[in-house]
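Worked example 3. Consider a protein that binds zinc ion.
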Amino acid sequence: MLLRHLRPRHPRPTATPTRFRRLAAVITVVIAGALAGGASPAAPHSRGGAPSATPAAPSSPGGPGNSRGVPGDDSGATPLEEGLPDGPSPRPADAGPSRDILARIPTFPAAPPPQPITLPAGASAPWLTHIPTTQPVAFITIDDGWVKHPQAFALIRAAQVPVTLFLTVNAIQDDPGHFARLQAAGAVIEAHTISHPNLRGRSYDFQRREICGSADRLGAMYGRRPVLFRPPFGEQDPTTLRAVRDCGMRAAFFWKETVNNGVVRYQVGRKVQCGDIILMHFRPAFVADFLAALQAIHDAGLTPALLADYLPDGPEPAIPSSPVSAPPGRDLPASSISGDQRN
Ligand SMILES: [Zn+2]
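Given these inputs, the predicted complex is written out as structure tokens:
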């Protein structure tokens, strides 16, 4: 998926030779890191370290793709998503964000005490594009994990805002410590499958393996079993939502806004609304994307809040002792979670 993100199948008109040279330099660093036998924390994820079982995202999903017509779909199917990274070039691993970058982090009012939403009873997990709340909050979510940006930790820590990470196991397992540091900086880790397939139309067993498996593996790695799920590419079907519930998670999520190359794209209007969920990814442009998300929330008069805080409590699933022996997940009582379809 990283390769697709980097590959300029449709070079943007604004691309300059300088930008291509910078990309070439980044790629050189990646290759050099791979040849050195270790993933440089400053470099995007080396796919050489990824298991061969990691399927590439279908370039033409068997499903209807981004059937909602939402720009910036997680599938990377839009030209924007496939464009070249346009953020600041990664700095050396030991270099924190510059003073200029830190000065661009907005200051937010204190978040109000979260008022969790209520969900009707049902046999499937709810599918949410936003949190229906009038509280002045929005939610930053960051997906995948292929790129381990050297400034992510310092930036998240400096911003002092909660962020939700929907991590793909195959994307993070070459450097799980990177995300443990983000967790220590205040990020909360949720599930985004093991191998990042398009789940729509797949069998229950296949989906359950990907969904339960990612929750179990991430729980074993980070000491907290995820309670939220986002399907790759935002693609799901009723089987997905049933499996999410059966895997002991409370809800599955789409999004409202997307951020890429430092630009926020809106489904509706030009302003983040109360309860909106903002999608970004771990990409080379992480700094620009994160700052853009923060600024958009600030400009809307909102404060970042934690997604999990707005879901009703459910039983805390057991943390498996190891990924191999992990139980497939524990069912929640039917009354504790529901099938609130919003998309
Ligand atoms: Zn993803």
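Take a moment to read the result before moving on. Residues 74, 143-144, 192, 196, 232 surround zinc ion (CB under 6 Å). The CA atoms of residues 148 and 178 lie 7 Å apart.
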